[in-house]
Design brief:
Helix content: 40-55%
Shape: globular
Largest sheet: 7 strands, parallel
Radius of gyration: 19 Å
Distance between the termini: 42 Å
Length: 251
Amino acid sequence: MKKFQRYQEIKNILNSYKHVEVKFLAKNFKVTEETIRRDLEYLESQNTLKRTHGGATLANKDDLSYYYRSTKNLDLKKLIASKALNYLKDKESIMVDSSSTALEAIRLLSSKSYAPKIITNSINLLYEFSNTNLNFISTGGRLNKHSGTLVGAQSIETIKNYYTQAVLLSCNTMSTDGFSVGGEEEGLTKKRMLQQSNLIIMLVDSTKILSNENAYFKFADYNNIDLIITDNTNFPESIKKAIEYYNISVI
């Protein structure tokens, strides 16, 4: 594989997973770790990524595009969504963020006879489920076309007006420090959402559990979360301690 081809493949991996490790890339491309480090140095000079200890993360502070989020790790998201359904089916009102994992959960919910009120800042939920039994309330706000998300002061003001029986959230990264996303405005919206219910559900697929790596904006600590739903409960020891300390349920 030529150098410029590796550059593009590294970009593709970062767009999908937000973080790459030198060892993984070296094995994947069948080159030395030193070659990968030089690749990462070059891409950092182009403002494509930010090097970290043992790897790199996206340099871009914006959220990943909805296309990437909705098509990656779809099998894990469907598994998580099926688990989440048991906690949603008896709820009359649910607040939902714009994450692709939450969308999978609402997709399952829409196929049932339930008809809860759903407050969301996701234009993708509004579009896909407009002809279902679900009753939607849009937060309004400024549209982030890249992520299909409504953000800003108007969105947050609308969220403040509603208290729901459950809040459904996801994140870009779950680490020892808490839960974070790539964009500040998206993070502020999620931060307000988790104040609007007594049941805060975090949907996290195992690729987002990175122990010591964080996305750009932290929106939640472990003491904010009631339930974590994931595809793999084999957490790093430091994260396991935080979950146990704050008595968070995990399925």
